[in-house]
Design goal:
By secondary structure, this protein is an alpha+beta fold. The protein has one helix and seven strands. A hairpin with a 2-residue loop joins strand 4 and strand 5 (110-114). The longest helix is centred in the first third of the chain and has 13 residues, at 29-41.
Length: 130
């Protein structure tokens, strides 16, 4: 594998006349709870991030990466009490939703406290850890 950029030639590409919309899917509470329990049983990885991507069954058709719909990545992440993730940043805005427990994130040096069911976001290219 090389570290160079990849190009996809789209010269003359004709967009489909009809949109191929993905059918809705349901991720149940039971499925979420099972995955949370599975992740919680794993030893802490070096970067502190026990995580699973939640993807649509058709994600691979686009060839742009795993997502719940085109352009949207959903990640389930589990931290145990007292754990911390390694700092990271992304080139997209991130929305966080606390499913269970409490904690805080440090985003560009600012502390954001959260509790169960809180939702918060932070901007692209912001360095953060939980």
């Amino acid at each position: 594998m090389t570290d160079s950029a990849k190009f996809i030639d789209r010269t003359g590409y004709k967009y489909p006349e009809k949109l191929d919309l993905w059918e809705p899917i349901l991720i149940t509470k039971n499925e979420m709870d099972e995955e949370i329990a599975r992740l919680a049983e794993l030893p802490r990885p070096e970067n502190g991030r026990r995580q699973s991507l939640i993807v649509h069954p058709r994600w691979a058709e686009l060839g742009v990466g795993p997502g719940l719909n085109p352009g949207v990545r959903v990640t389930l992440e589990v931290l145990k009490p007292g754990e911390q993730t390694a700092p990271i940043r992304h080139n997209s805005t991130q929305v966080n939703f606390c499913i269970e427990g409490t904690g805080h994130s440090i985003v560009n040096g600012k502390k954001i406290e959260f509790n169960e069911f809180d939702v918060y976001n932070f901007p692209s290219m912001g360095t953060y850890w939980h």
